[in-house]
From TrEMBL:
InterPro entries: TPR-like_helical_dom_sf, TPR_rpt, Ycf3. Residues 13-26 have a biased composition (Basic and acidic residues). This is UDP-N-acetylglucosamine--peptide N-acetylglucosaminyltransferase SPINDLY. Keywords: Repeat, TPR repeat. TPR repeats lie at residues 96-129, 130-163, 198-231, 232-265, 266-299, 300-333, 334-367, 368-401, 402-435, 470-503, 504-537, 541-574, 575-608, 609-642. It comes from the Eukaryota. It holds the Pfam family TPR_16. It comes from Blepharisma stoltei. Transmembrane segments: none annotated. Residues 1-26 are annotated as: Disordered.
Length: 670
């Protein structure tokens, strides 16, 4: 066999390589033709196979790798495509299109920082190419960097022959930046360029909506729907506009159509639920919120809106559960945290409500409404000094909002400063508020100043403005009590109970009115009802106290002992509770117990002459005669001018006790 020389071997290899190159180029051209005409994944795969054949024949051609990457990208195989573009870059690092194509793949895969680097490199290599600015703008937009996106879209609009999509996208970025006039301007230009483009009209409608130009928004959505009657998004967006225009029936019709076309989108049910909520059709609202939650159980907004529905129905525990679920998903969901605070306040969970409002302020910083809400919570906690601090904060944030002046006026009243409160109420009137809270507040201020008739006029005006206000009825009932018009007080509180039949505070207040009118049997019923409905903890001692007093006034002393004991359990340092229980013990001949209670009264009030006087009778009953004499003497020493305390010990030998005053009317010995 003839030996082949090195030169001949090289010639053979060159001929083979040239043949491979020609075949590779032929495959490449075939693939490019297929790619140009491809419409389906199968057609793109066929083109990709041609490029693979070309690569197998010639691996060093970056353009082959790049075109296969384009085919893969059109199929949606972004990872494989990015690898091909990386190989193309390795073979031809100075070609900007390779970086741009890989950047598109990275963007599709969510690898935004890498995409940004590639588009930066492409622009560096070819700074006049508008497509690269357009693609980089998309990345900036996905990163939430809308200002940078706008800059790049602007450069793209200048450089591109057809700037339609860049105008649309820049208009959408302006909407995100809340620059509505610029957004509308861009989108109107885009619509002029392509009047039959549904997406452009839809986005123009959205910008008009965000700019509160609802009629213009409707015009655009109507035109878009005429062009595409099977697009659920268009009906949904138009429904949102109708909802904000309070045209609820029209909104429902559009949401129904959107759901008919696409029953798997949770937002459609969510906003239909919000519409039902606005119409106070709570059952249908709950049903839609549940459908939305079923489709997207990790969306806090859906639980939040269901919570709002419960809130409107005054189902506070259910509302708390929904707001809490929203916060389990998104602990920084400000609206749910705020409304959770409102509901905890309403349900009497004051410490938890305080924690919620304070957390909201930590999240959002200075906020007038939150300071007002926390201030009102402090009011119910009877901490009016701190409440006023919050109202002062609210006023400093917005001195033209009347509400904080009204609430501060109420706290000033509670602190015994009616003149200052009137100044605040007048300021609220100056700021054009017609709130009935002002009339009621002025009524309370005049009541505090002793101007009962003026107070009654103001309070009645408040009730005329808002007949269903339980608070106003309660305040006027309190005024009636001060005027000794107890039947009128009972009438007001009965009306209030018709509105809130399970309100423990109302039963408590009406019980007090019955008590002061000496209708002790009805008072007892109301105090018991109040306790059965779980009143605020701050009210409980006084409810038990007056329940005990009502029994004592009926001379049912044995029954009076239990509520007085509850008072002592709740407030162990209140002398009056020991004093009334001591007297009740004494009246049922439990003198040892009475003696101990009188002793506790005297520890807390060493100058309580009545306690020494009544204790003397228990000492005497227990045959502690010397101690009894000392107690009688001590009582006379403390109140030498009180003739009721001057007795002849021999004449009271068989007397159980001498009653100095009715139950609940002991003087203040503090």
């Amino acid at each position: 066999m003839q030996k082949v020389s090195q030169k001949e071997q090289l010639q053979i290899e060159n001929r083979e390589q040239n043949k491979n190159n020609r075949e590779a180029e032929a495959k490449f051209k075939e693939g490019r033709t297929l790619l140009r005409d491809a419409r389906t994944p199968e057609q793109f795969e066929e083109a990709a196979q041609c490029f693979s054949d070309a690569i197998s024949l010639r691996e060093d051609k970056g353009i082959y790798w790049a075109y296969r990457g384009i085919a893969f990208r059109n199929i949606g195989w972004f990872r494989r495509a990015s690898c091909d573009f990386s190989m193309a870059i390795q073979l031809d690092s100075g070609y900007p299109q390779h970086y741009a194509e890989r950047g598109i793949c990275y963007q599709k895969m969510g690898r935004l920082e890498e995409a940004l680097e590639d588009f930066n490199e492409a622009i560096y290599l070819e700074p006049a190419n508008g497509h690269y600015y357009y693609s980089r703008a998309i990345v900036y937009s996905k990163m939430g960097k809308y200002d940078q996106a706008v800059d790049d879209y602007t450069k793209a609009i200048t450089a591109l022959q057809d700037p339609f999509q860049a105008l649309c996208n820049r208009g959408n970025c302006y909407r995100r930046l809340e620059k509505m006039d610029l957004s509308i301007s861009d989108l109107k230009k885009a619509v002029t360029m392509q009047q039959d483009n549904v997406n452009a009209r839809n986005n123009l409608g959205l910008s008009y909506f965000e700019n509160k130009e609802f009629d213009q928004a409707l015009l655009e959505f109507n035109k878009a729907i005429e062009m595409d009657k099977e697009n659920p998004t268009l009906y949904y967006n138009r429904g949102i506009v109708f909802y904000h225009m309070e045209e609820n029936e029209a909104a429902l019709k559009d949401f129904n159509k959107a759901i008919e076309l696409d029953y798997q989108d949770p937002n459609y049910y969510f906003n239909r639920g919000n519409t039902y909520l606005a119409m106070e059709n709570y059952n249908k609202a709950y049903s839609d919120f549940d459908r939305a939650i079923g489709l997207a159980p990790q969306n806090p907004k859906f639980y939040h809106s269901k919570g709002l529905a419960f809130q409107k129905e005054e189902k506070y525990n259910e509302a708390i559960e929904m707001f809490s679920k929203a916060l389990d998903i998104a602990p920084d969901h400000v609206a749910s945290r705020y409304h959770l605070g409102l509901m905890l306040h309403k349900s009497g969970h004051f410490p938890q409500a305080l924690q919620a409002f304070t957390k909201v302020l930590d999240l959002v910083g200075e906020d007038r409404l939150v300071y007002e809400s926390r201030g009102r919570l402090y009011q119910d906690m009877r901490n009016h000094e701190i409440a006023i601090r919050d109202f002062n904060k609210a006023i400093s944030i917005d001195p033209h909002s009347p509400d904080a002046y009204i609430f501060r006026g109420i706290s000033l009243l509670k602190l015994g400063k009616p003149e200052n409160s009137i100044t605040d109420f007048d300021k609220a009137i100056e700021l054009n508020s017609e709130s009935p809270l002002i009339d009621n507040g002025l009524g309370c201020a005049h009541k505090a100043l002793g101007n009962f008739e003026d107070a009654l006029i103001h309070m009645s005006t408040a009730i005329d403005k808002e007949p269903s206000s339980v608070d106003f009825l309660m305040d006027r009932a309190g005024l009636h009590c001060d005027m000794h018009h107890y039947p009128s007080a009972v009438e007001d509180l009965t009306k209030a109970l018709e509105l809130h039949p399970e309100d423990p505070q109302l039963f408590y207040k009406r019980g007090l009115a019955y008590y002061k009118n000496e209708n002790y049997e009805e008072a007892i019923k109301d105090f018991k009802q109040s306790l059965s409905f779980h009143p605020f903890p701050t009210y409980k001692p006084d409810i038990h106290y007056h329940l005990g007093l009502a029994y004592a006034c009926l001379e049912m002393f044995e029954k009076a002992i239990k509520p007085f004991t509850k008072c002592i359990d709740l407030c162990p340092n209140e002398a009056v509770y020991y004093h009334e229980r001591a007297k009740a013990y004494q009246m049922v001949d439990k003198n040892a117990e009475a003696l101990e209670d009188f002793g506790n009264v005297i520890k807390l009030q060493p100058n309580n002459a009545h306690a020494f006087f009544r204790r003397a009778f228990s000492q005497k009953a227990l045959k502690f005669y010397q101690e009894a004499a000392e107690d009688f003497s001590r009582a006379r020493t403390l109140q030498p001018k009180n003739p009721a305390l001057v007795i002849n010990a021999k004449k009271v030998h068989g007397v159980k006790c001498i009653v100095l005053c009715k139950p609940g009317q002991e003087p203040n010995f503090n």
